[in-house]
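Appendix B, example 12.
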Amino acid sequence: MNTLSFKTISANDKTVKHDWYIVDAENKTVGRLATKLATILRGKNKPYFTPHVDCGDYIIVINASKVKFTGKKWTEKEYVSHTGYPGGQRFITPKELAQKKPEFIIEYAVKGMLPKNNLSRQIIKKLFVYPDAEHPHKAQNPKPLI
């Protein structure tokens, strides 16, 4: 009998190769950019993707202060945080947040698209977001992604 014999490859920490990519976020829509980043951080673009292993690559995002939202999200969207004290709920719009900490907008969007478990806490550490074009990762020779 002629049959094909394919083995299912299960990746582990020793077999996974992590690459470095750089993304220019200038004039990119936040949600569409975040979905691409989350996919690559998780490693779902690789043929040997394994759900319980960190298969993803490192990503450097530059010009995070120049991202854009569609519609009226700059003024109407709200990020919610809590201080831990009674009545300590705080709200901030993306317009205000872009002045204080612009890299948080992309970090928060990507983090929300990852699974909520210990592996995602390890994965999110491979995302480096910078508000302008300067970054300290030139030695890793990142390849342009988008």
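The beta strands are 20-24, 58-62, 79-82, 89-92, 127-129, 143-144. The chain has five helices and six strands.
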